Amino acid sequence: MIFCVEDDNGIRDLMIYTLHSAGFEAKGFMDGSEFFAALQTERPELVMLDIMLPGDDGITILEKLRSNAATADIPVIMATAKGTEYDKVIGLDTGADDYLAKPFGMMEMVSRVKAVLRRAASQNRPKSLKVGNLEMNKSQHTVYVRGERLSLTLKEYELLHLFMENPGIVFTRDRLLQLIWGSDYMGETRTVDVHIGTLRTKLGECGAYIETVRGVGYRMEATL
């Protein structure tokens, strides 16, 4: 759900229509009072917030959002009048995730919304992954089996990361080549088998988590 706080009825209706057309749920509010009333019953994934509003302006609303632990991490895109660099700076310093300069195109708006939501999703992902006795710390690029740290090559780490983030999903050899080695890689699928073999060996007892799906490829299941 995306909340759009904009006092111009025409602009607000167009924003909501465009977001709906792009596959998003969206609701519109003409001022901070309506917006905060809606926050009592629903938490949006993102807020589109105009700076020039009746009552509390957008900066004041943003400050209230960021000062409340329940709403502090909601992504916010500010809408500023064209050429008002001061408003952009104040908005970003106050905690806005992005801004749009009016008048802005609807396709640009959708593109910014998708980009901010992607960043927010990335930041909210867990920093560690755990499957059975196998644990990966993504921020440190480290892997442990029963608390003992392993030494992996970059490709081994990337393969393991892909499997651990997608347990139960079967990946064909061709798909693994594309995802790990790149679409322009000219090597053979045998490369995947070799790396899977060495990765299993290094994982020891946890190597059995990487299952061979005969005639298809590989998947990760915690079986021990």
Annotate the secondary structure layout.
Layout: E1 2-5, H1 9-21, E2 26-29, H2 32-39, E3 46-50, H3 58-67, E4 76-81, H4 85-94, E5 98-102, H5 106-124, E6 128-131, E7 134-137, E8 142-145, E9 148-150, H6 154-165, E10 171-172, H7 173-181, H8 190-203, E11 210-213, E12 217-220
Question: How would you portray this structure in words?
Answer:
By secondary structure, this protein is α/β, with parallel strands linked by helices. The protein folds into 2 domains: 2-124, Response regulator (Rossmann fold, 3-Layer(aba) Sandwich); 128-220, Arc Repressor Mutant, subunit A, CATH 1.10.10.10. Helix content is 42%, strand content 22%. Strands 2-1-3-4-5 form a 5-stranded parallel beta sheet, sandwiched between helices. Strands 6-7-8-9 form a 4-stranded antiparallel beta sheet, with helices on one face. Strands 10-12-11 form a 3-stranded antiparallel beta sheet. Helix 1 (9-21) crosses helix 5 (106-124), helix 3 runs parallel beside helix 4 (85-94) and helix 6 packs across helix 8 (190-203). The protein is elongated and about 65 Å long. The two termini are 40 Å apart. 26% of the residues are buried. The mean pLDDT is 87.
Summarize this entry quickly.
The protein is of the alpha/beta class. It is built from 8 helices and 12 strands. The chain folds into 2 domains: 123 residues, 3-Layer(aba) Sandwich (Rossmann fold), CATH 3.40.50.2300; 93 residues, Orthogonal Bundle (Arc Repressor Mutant, subunit A), CATH 1.10.10.10.
Cα shape: elongated
Strand order of the largest sheet: 2-1-3-4-5
Give me the count of strands. 12
Q: In CATH terms, what is the architecture of the largest domain?
A: 3-Layer(aba) Sandwich
Mean pLDDT rating: 87
